[in-house]
Specification:
With 287 residues, this protein is α/β, with parallel strands linked by helices. It contains eleven helices and ten strands. It binds S-adenosylmethionine.
Length: 287
């Protein structure tokens, strides 16, 4: 059993969750170690928080992620995709462009209930309650996995990545998104403070959220996750830097089409310097 350095209670309210998300840009953070998998609550079941509403006003971020997924998957076709931690199905719809069958997996019944509505016009997307650390799929039963905005909640994703590897067939691919602690703004921030960037998961919650023990919200160092992917037997094929222009002032100043055109270019050009707050990895399970 893995150890815990704090208790994560499910009673965190909408404000604390929002604080945690904003904390990415606003606050410092602390380094956290592992969590106790047996003590983990079902995430996103808080009645005071509706993850679908979180996306109101985040058209740029959503479209930036859709561009990244389409770019990474190109013209490939898949027979079975698993959207792990798929939430209300925002990206399951995109996966269904590429795969004959899509299964949305989430540990939150509330998210699956939202997905039932959101995916009403996509009845082919199956919805299943599962924990990413113990997936109820046979070995080598899918050829595409997506995990977007999920590692953000996993200080140590070892068990979940092992599951991704197990359920993927040889030569299958995974699109895994990582909240990037080494994004450009944070690098400047750490340089000014003369602090090295943390190599292990970095807790970005507000102090209040931390003290009351909300769900984990962590950013990861790209070098560390690259090693974790390798240890899980997953080969990195490509990386994109995503949501590069996420700053509120830029979003306000630039018209929708302009910001997305710039984002499209930045995703590739800025990938090598890991500029953006979000990195999209294309991983492959070698044959
Ligand atoms: C930030 S949301 C992302 C949802 C979706 N991937 C998207 O990008 O819209 C994180 C989702 O991961 C789910 N989740 C977190 N930890 C999980 C776990 N251990 N197993 C399965 N789902 C998990 C949460 O319930 C939530 O729906």
């Amino acid at each position: 059993m893995r150890t815990t350095d704090r208790k994560f209670s499910q009673s965190s309210g909408a404000l604390r969750l929002r604080d945690s998300i904003l904390g990415d840009w606003l606050s410092g953070g602390i380094i956290v170690s592992n969590i106790d998998l047996n003590n983990r609550p079902a995430f996103y079941d808080d009645e005071g928080f509706n993850y679908q509403s979180y996306w109101t006003g985040r058209n740029y971020e959503h479209k930036a992620e859709v561009i990244a997924i389409r770019r990474l998957l190109g013209s490939r076709r898949f027979y079975h995709a698993a959207d792990i931690g798929g939430g209300f199905g925002r990206l399951s719809v995109v996966l269904s462009e590429f795969a004959d069958e899509v299964t949305l997996v989430d540990s939150s019944s509330q998210q699956l209930a939202l997905a039932a509505d959101f995916l009403a016009e996509h009845p082919g997307v199956e919805k299943r309650l599962m924990d990413a650390a113990s997936l109820d799929f046979p070995d080598a039963s899918v050829d595409l996995v997506a995990m977007v905005r999920v590692l953000h909640h996993l200080p140590d994703p070892t068990a979940e990545l092992a599951e991704v590897h197990r359920i993927l067939q040889p030569d299958g691919v995974a699109v895994v998104e990582v909240a990037n602690v080494a994004h450009a703004l944070n690098r400047v921030r750490h340089m000014v403070r003369r602090q090295p960037l943390p190599l292990i998961a970095y807790d970005i919650r507000s102090e209040a959220a931390r003290e009351s023990g909300g769900i984990p919200f962590v950013n990861h160092h790209p070098a560390t996750v690259a090693r974790q992917f390798k240890d899980a037997g997953l080969r990195v094929e490509r990386v994109l830097s995503v949501s590069n222009l996420r700053h509120p002032l830029l979003k306000k100043a630039l018209p929708g089409r302009t910001i997305l055109a710039a984002e499209r270019i930045a995703q590739v050009r800025l990938a090598s310097i890991q500029f953006g707050p979000s990195l999209f990895f294309l991983l492959r399970k070698p044959t």
